[in-house]
Amino acid sequence: MGNILPYLLGGISVGGQYALIAIGYTMVYGILRLINFAHGDIFTAAGFFMVYAAASLPLYLAIPVMILLTIVMGVLVERVAYKPLRSAPRMSVMISAIGMSYLLQNVMWYITGGLAKRYPVIPWVSDSITILGSTTKRVTIITPFLTVILVVALVILIQRTKIGMAMRATSRDFETAQLMGIKIDNVISFTFVVGSALAAVGSMLYFSNYAAVTPVVGTMPGLKAFVAAVFGGIGSIPGAVLGGFIIGISETLIKGAGLTTFSDAVTFALLIIILLVKPTGLFGEKSTQKV
Amino acid sequence: MKKLSALILILAMTVSLVGCSQSSTTGNKTLYIGVFEPASGDNGAGGKQETLGIQYANSVTPTVVVNGETYNVVLKIVDNQSSTDKAPTAAQQLVSNNVSVVLGSYGSGVSMAAAPIFEQAKIPAIGCSCTNPAVTQNRPYYFRVCFIDPFQGSVMANFVKDQFNAKKAYVLNMLGEDYGSGLATYFANAFKTLGGDVKAESFPEGTSDFSAYIQNAISYGADVIFAPCSTTYASLIISQAASAGCKIPITAGDTWESSVILDAQKGTNLEVYVSTFFDENDKSSLAATFVTGFKAWLNSNPQYKTDNGGNDIVAAVSALGYDAYMTAIEAIKIAGSTKGEDIKNAISKVNFDGVTGHISFPNGGDADKSEAFIKQADNGVFKFVKRQSSAG
Residues of A with CB below 8 A from B260's CB? Predict the structure, then answer.
């Protein structure tokens, strides 16, 4: 494969995007024990919000509007599809999540007509730069750093703030937390706020690189981010981030090695192997320390 | 709230029903022609343009005389969603609408998936731009007005050899897609016959990150990239090749003749070439009349213009859609019947000049075509490069 650097750069960038989506999966799982299958579609919706927002607003307004709309949508999904099922068996909620995912996909299909929309070009971020002889977009370099910064901020939020404490309490014991006067619904909503906001940022980075938005574009990254979350130990934020990077890099390297046909297969084989060998994932051993 | 939404739903349904029943006002009998095209999915953009060509043809020739009786031709348009799973349902829908003949589809895979259904119902289908040879092979009810992929593959192989003196070609297509993998193979075979080297790779459905593939092409030292795939992937490939600083010319087949490609290529230095069926600037009188008429028709309705990609550039697939419709009308006239079986037998006798060239069916289901047009995407327009035959 000759020069390995361009492949590594690509892998780190893809990994960072997976990581940002994976956090959304892992946080919701940590608190609700629910795999939010609609998360990949919220990511897609963020892409469309940006396409439409940027068509009528200047970019510095479009980005906050897009993030806000995505958050509203994430919270709305929780309120409509998950909250009424709070006391139902976990399986029902999961099925509701799958249903929500298809509903969102089809609504987007209906609204957009199913054609690929071009993502707006964000100046500076989308410029091409040359590093050590290999050319890439600036966003490729920004992604891993931004991911790490956001994750550190998130960890501080969870460890140091009142709402973070409430989240930790809720994830440990739902009912006891409720008895202690924590408003569970607010905590859960807040979780979806954070998860959706990260998905919105992730989608911005993702589509700056791959500028075509279609209604099903989020499915594959969503699934891979889910694999990343499981790989790192679902419920663990550092795990999700590490998992994202590992999946992203291994995927690109496999393509670089000429095994392009198998790149997706390997990702999912990795999921099966980790489930067989270490079902709790890399960081999942302490079942009490979720979120 | 529930009542309100129910009301809105009912209203929406009524409106769509009214939309359906606008035509057939005069006392003439009605004849249905099915339009089997994708309006959504990976091939939605091209499918819409092909449908526009058919709709335009319908507006030019809205009636046909069969045995002294005038029939109004009404189009029944279904969306096969670019998906081989959904195509049979859409085809079934046309069959139950009692269409006499079917036009389409853009994309060879969906046409193949639907072929048995049309065959069972004894309804002939005329493909506009489905170029995979298997579409008409052993399918007596499937015809097409375009050239086929073995021809197109060897045309492109000859073109890159002539134009770039290419020795190494990197071929990329989507895994398991009938159109792309067929064309990729024909190109590779033809290019090897001409003495070139080929590295062929394929990507799984849903891929967004093509940087690794582009790096592979660069490290292989390719003189040219040949990437027959749907326009959704094409725009990703072009923009990522540009941002990776790739200088290798990218070529593809007829699918890439789309405004999506123009948008992706705009503002980059990449050379992008496509082979196609029709040239907008063709000065032969038939083509020129078609172009003027079609442009005026597109500009008459904002919805048509949106479906065409927001501009009035005439795509080759629109011209093929027009020719397919005219072929159907010719066949109905010759058959003197609205029965599928009779029309099928009449298609082989069709012989007329279409806007994409002469159309006749001397050898079974495929129209006899001998040349392709090569165009280059250049900052927002397709520039005509040359006419290319498969002989070099």
Answer: 116
Question: For residue B144, with 0-12 CB atoms within 10 Å meaning exposed, 13-18 middle and 19 or more buried, which class applies?
Answer: buried
Same fold, B28-147+285-361 and B151-276+373-388: yes
Residue B73 predicted with pLDDT over 90: yes
With CA atoms as reference, report the closest residue to B43 among B90, B80, B91. B80
* DSSP letters spanning A53-72: HHHHS-HHHHHHHHHHHHHH
Residues in B closer than 8 angstroms to A212, CB to CB, are 208, 232, 235-236
Domain boundaries, chain B: 28-147+285-361, 151-276+373-388
Answer yes or no: do A116 and B243 touch at CB < 8 A.
no
User: What is the architecture of the domain spanning B151-276+373-388?
Assistant: 3-Layer(aba) Sandwich (3.40)
- Mean pLDDT for B179-189 is 93
Q: Taking CB atoms and an 8 Å limit, are A136 and B243 in contact across chains?
A: yes
Q: Which residues of B touch chain A, with CB atoms under 8 Å apart?
A: 39-42, 44-45, 48, 81, 175, 201-204, 206-209, 211-213, 215-216, 219, 231-232, 235-236, 239-240, 242-245, 260, 263-264
Residue type, B244: A
Is the confidence at residue B51, as pLDDT, over 90?
Answer: yes
**All structural domains of chain A with their residue ranges:** 10-219
CA atoms of B379 and A42, how far apart (whole Å)? 34
Using CB atoms, pick whichever of A135, A219, A220 lies closest to residue B244: A135
User: Does B28-147+285-361 carry CATH code 1.20.120.550?
Assistant: no
pLDDT at A87: 86
CA atoms of A291 and A167, how far apart (whole Å): 7
Q: Which residue in A128, A212, A263 is closest to B236 by CB distance?
A: A212
Residues of B in contact with A44 (CB under 8 A): none
Find the CB nearest B204 among A210, A216, A263: A263
For the entire predicted model, the pTM comes to 0.76
pLDDT digits (tens, 9 = 90+) for B103-148: 989 989 999 999 999 999 999 999 998 988 899 999 999 999 998 8
CA–CA min distance B245, chain A (Å): 6
Neighbours of A290 (CB within 10 A): 22
Interval A143-156: pLDDT, tens = 889 999 999 999 99
Tokens of B88: 């049979």
Specify the pLDDT at position B26: 55
pLDDT at B23: 45
- B366 closest CA partner among B128, B95, B31: B128
DSSP structure class, residue A115? P
Answer yes or no: do B244 and A258 touch at CB < 8 A.
Answer: no
